[in-house]
Amino acid sequence: MDIFSKIAAGEIPSYKCAENDEFYAFLDINPLVEGHTLVIPRREVDYIFDMDNDELARYQVFAKRVALAIKKAFPCKKVAQVVLGLEVPHAHIHLIPMQSEADVDFRREKLKLTEDQFKAIAEKIRGEFV
Q1: Cβ count within 10 A of residue 99
Q2: Which of 32, 42, 89, 92 has its CA at 20 to 30 Å from residue 49's CA atom?
Q3: How far apart are the C-alpha atoms of 62 and 99, rounded to whole Å?
Q4: How far are the Cα atoms of 27, 36, 76, 100, 106 from residue 24, in angstroms, in the given order?
Q5: pLDDT digits (tens, 9 = 90+) for 32-42
């Protein structure tokens, strides 16, 4: 079981933003901006395009619902969707509230947030998730 599966199963703590039977959304612990969220399938799959079409469609619809909650919780021009990362062999989508493209530069310094700040951010997104 990989680290993201353990997070979705509750074996490793996370700042949950949204979930259903198939997918789980939680705050990135090294965020670019407040509200930076990861969305994963509960099923272990390494590459997003290894998902069958129906599962991928449901994944995108779930991510859209999370993005709409993020946009309400953290007013921004758009919520970026980024699929990258080779460090964890589990498909994941980064949802990042952005005012400009600079907000999605993964080379920039990450925010240092306290546990209370993470909890408040996750609660804000959960409160807007429909």
Answers
A1: 11
A2: 32
A3: 23
A4: 10, 14, 23, 27, 22
A5: 999 999 999 99
Instruction: Fill in the amino acid letter for 76.
Output: C
Q: What is the mean pLDDT of residues 8-23?
A: 96
Instruction: Give catalytic residue positions.
Output: 92
- DSSP bridge partners of 24: 19, 40
* Token digits of residue 27: 């705050």
Q: Give dist(CA 69, CA 110) in Å, integer.
A: 22
pLDDT, residue 99, reads: 97
DSSP 8-class letter at 109: P
Give the pLDDT of residue 62.
98
Q: HSE on the CB side for 108, CA within 13 Å?
A: 10
- 0.85 surpassed by pTM: yes
Secondary structure E strands in the chain: 16-19, 23-27, 37-41, 78-82, 93-98
pLDDT the model gives residue 75: 95
> What is the reported pLDDT for 129?
96
Say how far apart CA 1 and CA 65 lie, in whole Å.
Answer: 27
